[in-house]
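A note from the maintainers: we've had questions about how concatenated examples are separated. There is no special marker in the raw files; a new sequence line simply starts the next protein. For clarity in this README we add a label.
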Amino acid sequence: MYQRDRDRVLHSGAFRKLQYKTQVFVYHEGDYYRTRLTHTIEVAQIARSLSRNLNFNEDLAEAIALSHDLGHTPFGHAGEEILNNLMKPYGGFNHNEQALRILTKIERRYPLFDGLNLTFETIDGIIKHNGPIRGKPTPLLLNLKDLMKLNFSAFGTGEAQLAAIADDIAYNAHDIDDGLRAQIFKVADLDKLSLVSPLISEIQSDFGTIEESRLISELVRKIVNTLVADILTETMSRLQKIRPVYSADIINAKQPIVSFSEELTPKIQQLRKFLFAKMYRHYKVNRMASKAKRVISELFNLFMEDPTVLPDEWRYLDKKNLKNNQARLISDYIAGMTDRYALLEYDRLFDFKAKL
């Protein structure tokens, strides 16, 4: 049944749009760099491999992994940040919750229901793939909790935890790949990192001097292997301690069961700090973020002032609480845009020479 969930996600419009949504670099900066789609496929592959080794349900882990980024806006985290600021008077914006809106409301493909009608376990895994829900749940989460009898205080299933940690592996390793090939930093800069330095030494010892493209590929492969091996060892150790018989034993554990080891965690944190400073705050990325904020702000404000310029299929509104509903509908429309569609829509609406 989780195969059906996976297939419905794969055939959804939201999944196809990930092809032209930014991971770090905007699509037109180069064909090589990862998009939300290629990142999602990599996460799903890692989640499946981990599940197979740990005897978890591969199809469930894959369905959760394939769904985890569906709610992202165009232009990466910069797009989410500005859309959240614009939506604060109306309940804010969060890409994890937006994924749930897509899966339960926005996708309209079937005659009998809105959304994709996914199983309880897949929806629960998407909600809690980052752990139990803390703080005050949103109206959407409360509604799903009532409909599906969700337990917000418990951890996600092992498969949900695997999908989340597979995401960490993918973006850490593959942002290094993209950053090196974009020449934002060099291999020598990575030699200062405790996780990466021994791997560079291994490659040099095994192969001597090799061309940089091969060096980068081998380094990324070794990083992924190191992280995966550590997770398998640590998770098997934690499973041995609780000896679960049912999935509830993992959900109700006092700590996550799927985890990096205590030894590796500070090394990963050092790597994340490096990527944040050297890559996510690089001037090329900052320029994209600045453009994203301008494009999304002006589109949102125009649609709020004059919703008649929205496409016909996006002009359905519940008359009750009209302003909030209008803002949420506009948020759904903008969040569903790809990078290139957002730029095209901006030109159509603000450039008098552009074709309508």
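[label: protein 2]
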Amino acid sequence: MNSNSYANNLIIGTPSYDAANNQLTFTIKWDNSWRINNGPSNWDAVWIFVKRQPCGANGIWSHALLSATSSDHSVTGSYGLVADAVADQMGVFIHRPSAANNAIGSFPTTSSVTIKLSGTYIPNLIGSSTTSDNFKVIGIEMVYVPQGSFYLGDGRSSSTNNFTAGASSTLPVQINASKQTSGLGSYTNYVNSPSYGSVVSLPSTFPLGYNGFYCMKYENNQQQIVDYLNTLNYDQQAARLAVWASTRVPSTNGTYFSYALNNYRQEIKVTTAGTNNTLPAVFGLTNTYNAFLPAGYLNWQDLTSYLDWAGLRPMTEFEFEKACRGTDAPIANDFPWGNKIINTSSGNFSAINTTTETSNSTYEGNCWYNWDGGPIRSGFAATASSNRSQSGATYYGIMEMGGNIFEQCVGGGSGYNYSTFTITNGDGALTSLGLANVTGWPTSGGLSSGTILRGGAFYNNTGNNYQMQVSDRSFYTGTIINGNTVRDRATGGRGVRTF
């Protein structure tokens, strides 16, 4: 059985397996939870999924499908939490019930969760399965972005690659039910040049952001990447390390995923060497506080591999703007926290290099940039008394969509067709090289790849802090820094899920 798992301020207790009923029971607790039925009218949740490993013969980790019936799962304890099953059985969402109007805060005690496994695994369990098998219950904090109309673009006449309502317009584009149902269509409906959009019309199956979806509350952190690496087989681990060099293999103790020790605060490493082509390595972290830091050095294939493994999917740049701006009317040069004010928190921290490192700034527009030393703890600017601008939160309460680590999204232009991308979520299984294999997802990062960086990063200086703005599309052509054979210190991201 696995030990306690931490994902930022989420704590999941050791699961207990009931073979007779094919159920897992564990405890759950997380901070800064909410459910509000006015304003944004949304809530946060934890996406729970399960991996299982037979104990015998170096068993392979597989994704456990869960029951698609919500009543098969239960939560007892604080705030009457509920469990929502999903149709593809990849996991469940745990969140506050609808009756908990305007409930905000931490859970004073833990809740007990029981989830029912379906008995099906992807891939099939390899090795003799017993009641003493290893289980990993993994949780990711998410935020629900509800269905509704919103605007793309901020109306800047000086920005040629901005989203605009037609080729000769500077007006923002409203995405409503009609556009989602019919599809956005030709590039002429959302940009002013064919080089700025998809070369093929966007159909109704392309996620424009109108329909509801869950978005990760925080960027992928280093502990989450460790959890992911520790369920891959040796060859999959080796393929991901080989992005740096063919000599970087999981059979060498101390090998760093981020290339070198203390490299921009990225310190994922091999803590127990594996055996070539046989026994996978065990990855870990150099310092405890790294578990709470966003993971850089993730190229497009790294990010999508993680998302497929977790039953999530990449977000489009349309969904990025929805998650940031919400139903607010756009203003020129607006940032994710809803205004044009931006203040770097660089150098103004307490408890640095601890699990509680926190910004001392009380200014509006808090953002982590202008310091080329690495990312800061997720949620670093949020306190019990901070407002949206002071905490750097989006309209829906999603953190660090500006600064810290670049968000990798589906979109951009420069002659790429990304119209086949859909709301299909990952299935928990990867290729022999540890890659995502979901039809319609861009398979490669880099130039003209159907991928785009949004939201800026820690090393952006004051001269290019415009990259943190909601509608900035500086990387519409793609960029070499998230290509298949490179990794950049500030490329990371997060995923979404349609359910």
